[in-house]
# Entry
Amino acid sequence: MRSYTELRQLRFLYLEDSYVLDVVAEPGTLILKVDLVFTEDHPEYRPPEPGDRYSYTRGELKFSGVSRLTWSGQGAQPAVDASGERDYGCVDSLEFEGSRYRIEGDFGIIDLEAELVMIQMSKH
Amino acid sequence: MASYIIGGIVIAGFVVMTCVVLCPVIATAATMSVSAGSGASILAAAKVTGAALTDQPNTSIIKPASETARGALVRYDADFAAGQLTGGGRATASQLDEFGAAQGWTRGQSATGPLKYEDGNGIARLTIKRGSDRAPGSGSPHVEIRNDAGLRVDPYGHLVTRSSLGNHTPIEWNLP
# Structure
């Protein structure tokens, strides 16, 4: 399979240090709520605040037109940070081949067929 | 004659009492000297002594004597030992790999993902990352640490936010 960095709409993301806050699977849709890290060549990129590793932008990684989805390896405990927020670690890998996607992280392994993947941002 | 016998008994008693008192002290001192050795011995020493390794004690994880295992100098604390290993940013990836295995945690790594150690409660205690030159500012190798309650901590046991530098403790990468 191929890396997400080959996808036009995702190639400006650094998912390996982007934190997954929630995963929502509904009929036809999969949404990962994520604190996103942008690479320096994206207009949304900002230098990190003092004391932070990166500047994070809250957003969603949304798969639509989902026709098949399996989610294995669930059950890991979420992390809790000093602010009390929970997260499921980072997106360890996101690979694709045609319309098939495979996403892996502390939340488990999600294998799906989808028509479209896109990001939606909301500055936090 | 009787005074010689009594004197002998008194001297023998003094020798026995001295041994009883001093032997544990000598043994403790010997163990602590091992603990204070080079970085290479930290893993082994941490398994034995835990709190004897630091000059910056983290009072939140030092256990009272009443909680120590019978016969042990200090109750072993994996969180404390992980902090000792990673403090100062000088730990290597292979040391962390060895450390995670020594705790009995489960090792996991996907084809392209980071190396992880998960404890028996499903908590990813160590996430060891190589970094990437795609990351802003050239992401360098680092480790993310969670304590036994699943809280993100830095090497000194302080709670940290996920975005903070404290959640990205630098390491040296020496794995393939």
